[in-house]
């Protein structure tokens, strides 16, 4: 049996189910306090996440990083398992670039409309939609 003391299991779950589950040497997330790099044997931690990319350095392909677009949520690390719970998450290979670009364009128009109408609630919603769309585009393009 392989020695798992330097292995971190990374799983990402949304309300729709499991999006990602692999063994890794490291996972990098964007927390509300900045970027965090987590390796095996890390102390237990729970942290809220921003809209951002999750980078996973897989054990089975050391020169490759999997990229996953995550729209907020939180990460818990304990016993060499990094569990990310998010409202939505998409792997790089599953992102439809044209849909993401259309969502970006739509959000930019909604921002302009909200600004002209001085609608702060709509402005905030459109800004979040823009962040999500840009995050998906960046992940798909490998930034």
UniProtKB/TrEMBL annotation:
MF (Gene Ontology): ATP binding; proton-transporting ATP synthase activity, rotational mechanism
Any one GO cellular component localisation term in the record: proton-transporting ATP synthase complex
Record's keyword annotation contains Ion transport: yes
Gene3D superfamilies: ATP synthase delta/epsilon subunit, C-terminal domain (1.20.5.440), F0F1 ATP synthase delta/epsilon subunit, N-terminal (2.60.15.10)
Cell compartments where the protein resides: Cell membrane
Membrane topology field: Peripheral membrane protein
Stretches the record annotates as Disordered: 100-123
SUPFAM superfamilies attached to this UniProt entry: Epsilon subunit of F1F0-ATP synthase C-terminal domain, Epsilon subunit of F1F0-ATP synthase N-terminal domain
ATP synthase epsilon subunit C-terminal domain boundaries: 94-140
Any matching Pfam family: ATP-synt_DE_N
Boundaries of every ATP synthase F1 complex delta/epsilon subunit N-terminal domain copy: 8-89
Ranges annotated as biased composition (Basic and acidic residues): 100-111
Main location: membrane
Secretion signal, residue range per the UniProt entry: none
Family of the protein in this entry: Belongs to the ATPase epsilon chain family.
NCBIfam families the record matches: ATP_synt_epsi, PRK00571.1-3
Assembly and interaction partners: F-type ATPases have 2 components, CF(1) - the catalytic core - and CF(0) - the membrane proton channel. CF(1) has five subunits: alpha(3), beta(3), gamma(1), delta(1), epsilon(1). CF(0) has three main subunits: a, b and c.
HAMAP family cross-referenced by the UniProt entry: ATP_synth_epsil_bac
Protein name: ATP synthase epsilon chain
Source organism: Lacticaseibacillus brantae DSM 23927
Lineage: Bacteria, Bacillati, Bacillota, Bacilli, Lactobacillales
